[in-house]
Design goal:
The chain is mainly beta. It has one domain. The chain has four helices and 35 strands. The strands form six sheets. It has a 15-stranded mixed β-sheet that branches. Strands 3, 14, 15, 16, 17, 19, 21, 32, 33, 34 and 35 form an eleven-stranded mixed β-sheet that branches. A two-stranded antiparallel sheet has the order 1-2. The longest helix has 13 residues. The N terminus is likely disordered.
Length: about 500
């Protein structure tokens, strides 16, 4: 049960608001399960503070332009996905979201690559990429089942969503806990957050520390103009299944390597976790040319050709500190800021894996990510998810790595189309929740807030700063024209649209 500091210096329990939906709708089961997870997690009681930020997932006050380092356990539902037969040799790339003890929500394109096998592992509870090689085995899961959305047909960008079932359940804790899924059509016009270990900007390396980026909703008419029909997006921007988030004044965006991670918001009915409203998807063109986006003069970037190929092996020595001021609008997250974040790995073993896309833990068996994160042309399918890390350079024993058992793209996801860019990754074993690894909730409504945070494959998540720090994943980072320039906006797979499919895969486990 969450606690807060009382006037007499003791810790008092906080009663969760078990708000019923107005009518029985798809997602009620997911919402109730999310509250159940929350009620079982013991959160720290800090002297002189309530359980609000910075101790349970959000940072109050102003933020620097762009992204910042997440804090340890701030996004406890985040999962890093790995590709490869052996964890020690796996490549980690996409992200995902733990949405229950057994399911990870991610992008459909994160479930496999052209050269590697399916996504195999999920690592939970990590803050840094460098944590993967030393992550505790209890925070690593394999995926036993990968369920892509039935309409996901790569390379189409539509329906880019998938569910990954873990081989063993994750025991929810402060460090690893599921996010809730946003259900319904209405999303408040508030700030959302995208999280991931993707590129720090144009021609920059992948972030070592998990990044969180605040984003705001971009009007549909603007996105329809900027994202006209294309070879892989024949209908252009589709506001029924996709969301458009960015920032029209400050260079903030998701970038290569963030696929599959959540777009998430916080909710005042629950504490210290997130509602997932979207999944980070991908871009449209040869992003090796440029990775920056300007609504006034857009270029195309962050497609899987870029996000999955330009990555950092876990065996490489890397520190993201020198690039702190060069992020694509992001700021460093702190440990436990986003405990639902997952870093996805591609390769034969975690030690040699390429860690690229992001994802969101949505339960103890599934990670939510983007469909385009399912595989890489060079490294093959997602094999691993790394959880509970802040930096890519975290000691490997700190990486909570899970094998990916199954990659499940949305059935209508058909790459290179960008529609339905969502996928679920199931881990071979249940994700064990703790302070660094915890699922996010999924946003239930289709009405979106104006501001959010997100990164490719990772979540677009919404936070509410009112002494409550429940985050909801509203979207999955799908694609964008470029990242890191003022006036940018990205496309996010709308999680609420895919709730029937997600619940059909995760069943009672969500």
């Amino acid at each position: 049960m969450p606690t807060k500091r009382t006037g007499n210096g003791t810790c008092a329990k906080i009663k969760l608001k078990r708000r019923k939906l107005i009518r029985t709708v798809v997602g009620q089961k997911a919402w109730e399960k999310c509250l159940e997870h929350q009620s079982k997690i013991k959160l720290p009681c800090i002297k002189g503070r309530t359980i609000s930020s910075p101790y349970c997932g959000q940072e109050l006050g102003t933020q620097r332009a762009g992204g910042i380092n997440a804090r340890k356990h701030e996004f406890a539902h985040m999962a890093l996905l790995g590709y490869g037969k052996n964890f020690s040799e796996a490549t980690f790339g996409c992200g995902g979201s733990l949405i229950s003890e057994t399911f990870v929500l991610t992008a459909g394109h994160c479930t496999a690559t052209r050269t590697l096998v399916n996504v195999t592992f999920a690592v939970f509870g990590i803050l840094q990429r460098q944590d993967v090689p030393k992550v505790s085995p209890k925070n690593i899961r394999r995926f036993k089942r990968i369920v892509k959305y039935p309409l996901y047909k790569p390379p189409s960008v539509y329906h880019d969503i998938a569910l990954l079932e873990l081989d063993k359940p994750i025991q929810p804790s402060y460090k690893i806990r599921p996010a809730c899924l946003h259900v319904g059509n209405d999303i408040e016009d508030i700030r959302a957050y995208a999280t991931g270990w993707g590129a720090l900007g144009h021609k920059r390396p992948n972030a070592n520390v998990l990044q969180k980026v605040p984003l705001w909703r971009v009007k549909d008419e603007v996105c329809k103009t900027k994202y006209p029909p294309h070879r892989v997006a024949v209908k252009g921007y589709d506001n029924t299944t996709q969301m458009c988030y960015g920032d029209d004044g400050i260079p903030r965006d998701t970038c290569k390597g963030d696929s599959g991670g959540p777009l998430q918001i916080s909710n005042d009915n629950v504490h210290c976790t997130y509602l997932i409203i979207g999944v980070t998807s991908v871009g449209l063109s040869n992003c090796a040319q440029f990775c920056s986006y300007n609504l006034l003069k857009p270029t195309v970037c962050c497609s899987d050709c870029y996000s999955l190929e330009y990555s950092i092996r876990t065996s490489q020595k890397y520190s993201g500190d020198r690039y702190e001021n060069d992020v694509a609008g992001g700021v460093d997250a702190r440990r436990s800021d986003y405990p639902h974040m997952a870093l996805l790995g591609y390769g034969h073993s975690p030690e040699s894996a390429e860690w690229m896309c992001g994802g969101s833990i949505i339960n103890d068996r599934y990670i939510l990510t983007a469909g385009h994160c399912m595989s890489s042309p060079t490294f093959g399918k997602i094999r691993f998810a790394a959880l509970g890390i802040l930096q890519r350079t975290d000691d490997f024993h700190m990486w909570q790595i899970y094998d990916i058992a199954e990659i499940i793209p949305y059935p209508q996801y058909n790459p290179p189309s960008k529609y339905h860019d969502i996928a679920l990754l199931s881990t071979r074993r249940r994700i064990r929740f703790n302070k660094e690894v915890a699922p996010a909730c999924l946003h239930r409504s289709n009405v979106m807030p104006r501001r959010a945070i997100g990164d490719s494959g990772g979540p677009l998540q919404i936070g509410v700063y009112n002494d409550k720090c429940k985050f909801m994943v509203a979207g999955i980072t799908s694609y964008g024209r470029s990242c890191g320039f003022a006036g940018n906006a990205g496309i996010y797979t709308r999680v609420a649209y895919y709730m029937p499919w997600i619940e059909s895969i995760t069943g009672r486990l969500l």
